[in-house]
Amino acid sequence: MPSQSDDLFRALADPTRRRILDLLAERGTLTVGQLAEQFPDLVASGISKHLMGLRAAGLVIATRQGRQRLYRIDADALAEALAPWLAKYEPYWAAALERLRDLAEGREP
Amino acid sequence: MPSQSDDLFRALADPTRRRILDLLAERGTLTVGQLAEQFPDLVASGISKHLMGLRAAGLVIATRQGRQRLYRIDADALAEALAPWLAKYEPYWAAALERLRDLAEGREP
DNA sequence: GCAACATATTACCGTACGGTAATATGTGAG
DNA sequence: CTCACATATTACCGTACGGTAATATGTTGC
After folding, report:
1. Is 0.85 topped by the overall pTM?
2. What strands lie across the sheet with B68-73, from one edge to the other?
3. What is the rounded CA–CA span in Å between residue B3 and residue B85?
4. What is the pLDDT of residues B44-97, one digit of tens each?
5. CB contact under 8 A, A18 and B9
6. How far does A6 lie from chain B, in Å, by closest CA?
């Protein structure tokens, strides 16, 4: 019986799937074809398979529009899956994240 | 050329490795034997192999003490590896984490 | 030095995974 | 209705992965 966390981390394990998520996070909504354009080394059906994987893990939602399918991140599901794990490790990443934010705003340490 | 993120998420992909990290996060420092006790279904050398994987990903550090080896989380490395990805997805998990914290403190929504 | 112990390393095995190619399904256009 | 298009599904392949068993390395205690 695979747990919520299992699905999440298994989905995140593959670099292609992570990049798909990145693209969806940046652009909000993309079709399979638009995503496939970003992966010249992969065949389109490969992307489709990865999207199925992300959908199975509940990280992504598809809505039909004409003959294409619009994918977007399932924000609630991603948040719910991630939060418990993040809470457990908060002491580890909190400081680094702060530092990263300061750096992005050009502040000095 | 595997990136920092690749190593991190690959290491986190396996439930056994995640549980090893959990145990180290809770108890601070553990020997291979102490860790192996927590996995009755696995042989000790299997744990050792997973620890090597975590060490290779830079998430864990070992120090020798007598004939045993003490493992602990490499807090800095974990933080540095995790922070950039977390920053990218902060809008997604921030609210859920807040909710989780409130819940833990018994607050009402 | 040697026996017992803790961990690491190697060799090996089955299976799951990521990839492609081929085929199927569903939809808009003419 | 039919053709072209967008995506999904299936079948198949090589490889990477997690696991065990066997062996090697290094350390303490006698």
Report:
1. yes
2. B30-31, B68-73, B60-65
3. 12
4. 999 999 999 999 999 999 999 999 999 999 999 999 999 999 999 999 999 999
5. yes
6. 7
